[in-house]
């Protein structure tokens, strides 16, 4: 299904009452999360290198620190590049100095927002409930949340990976709009370490994520995009993208090199 050239939207509707429609192909995405790195020069260089690389087949999303969203928007105008925020408030407004709402992100051209990144969970003590509330706030404003989940090294060592992923997903499926989210499997032990999950490890986790979601809605589970994040680079990307349940990548450090991000994107395009 992932790589089929035809989606349900391009086939003529099947009138037979007892035949399920063919689900649309999953959206494939490469997202470059700069975290708290970058500057105006990187905005210019990244858009210059990537603007002509993007095709409709795979989304390419730049996720700079919030102060640079306006600059990316200006530079990327008229291209197929999309933009994401790294964080968003769960509220639609109010007395919350230093926060911003999903509506504001939508207004300045963000199509996505990352929620529940392990660095937010660790340094800002964000929990599963708050992450789910942020995801719903995004959906209410017409933004697609990229919901990060993943286990720590200690949890992995104690064979708790499935337990942790299951808990994180249980909270997610309680929001009404969960079928519209993008999930990013980001094992904490792989983030910033240079040790990515192997393709088989990523595939096993992604299949488990889909199986968990299928307990609530099998059709939605088959259609949701599940990205892998954690030390993705231009050398390991193609093997990860070859896995049937890996629909793209959330790239950290390597996205600070526009050339590396371009090569990762090209690997996604060829998968
Ligand atoms: O956290 C990540 C992306 O959100 C992954 O970061 P790295 O690619 O630097 O490991």
Automatic annotation (TrEMBL):
Keywords: Cytoplasm, Gluconeogenesis, Glycolysis, Isomerase. Its main location: cytoplasm. One of its GO terms (biological process) is glycolytic process. It is found in: Cytoplasm. One of its GO terms (cellular component) is cytosol. Substrate binds at residues 33-35, 192, 231. It is an enzyme of class 5 (isomerase). The active site is at residues 117, 186. Its EC number is 5.3.1.1. The keyword Lipid biosynthesis does not apply. The keyword Isomerase applies. Homodimer. HAMAP family: TIM_B. Involved in the gluconeogenesis. Catalyzes stereospecifically the conversion of dihydroxyacetone phosphate (DHAP) to D-glyceraldehyde-3-phosphate (G3P). This is Triosephosphate isomerase. It comes from Silvimonas terrae. The lineage of its organism: Bacteria, Pseudomonadati, Pseudomonadota, Betaproteobacteria, Neisseriales.
């Amino acid at each position: 299904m992932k790589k089929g050239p035809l989606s349900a939207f391009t086939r003529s509707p099947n009138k037979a009452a007892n035949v399920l429609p063919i689900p649309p192909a999953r959206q494939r995405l490469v997202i470059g999360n700069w975290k708290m790195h970058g500057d105006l020069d990187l905005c210019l260089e990244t858009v210059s290198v990537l603007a002509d690389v993007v095709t409709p087949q795979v989304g390419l999303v730049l996720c700079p620190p919030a102060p640079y969203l306006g600059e990316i928007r200006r530079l990327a105008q008229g291209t197929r590049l999309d933009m994401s925020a790294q964080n968003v408030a769960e509220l639609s407004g109010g007395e919350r100095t230093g926060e911003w709402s999903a509506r504001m992100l939508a207004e300045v051209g963000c199509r996505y927002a990352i929620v529940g990144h392990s660095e937010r969970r660790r340094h800002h003590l964000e929990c599963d409930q708050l992450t789910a509330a942020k995801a719903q706030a995004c959906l209410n404003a017409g933004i697609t949340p990229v919901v990060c989940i993943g286990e720590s090294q200690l949890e992995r060592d104690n064979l708790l990976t499935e337990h942790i992923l299951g808990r994180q997903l249980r909270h997610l499926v309680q929001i009404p709009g969960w079928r519209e989210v993008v999930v990013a499997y980001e094992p904490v032990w792989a983030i910033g370490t240079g040790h990515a999950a192997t393709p088989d490890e990523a595939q096993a986790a992604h299949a488990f994520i889909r199986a968990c979601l299928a307990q609530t809605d099998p059709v939605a589970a088959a259609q949701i995009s599940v990205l892998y994040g954690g030390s993705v680079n231009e050398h390991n990307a193609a093997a990860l993208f070859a896995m049937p349940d890996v629909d793209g990548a959330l790239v950290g450090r390597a996205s600070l090199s526009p050339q590396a991000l371009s090569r990762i994107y090209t690997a996604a395009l060829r998968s």
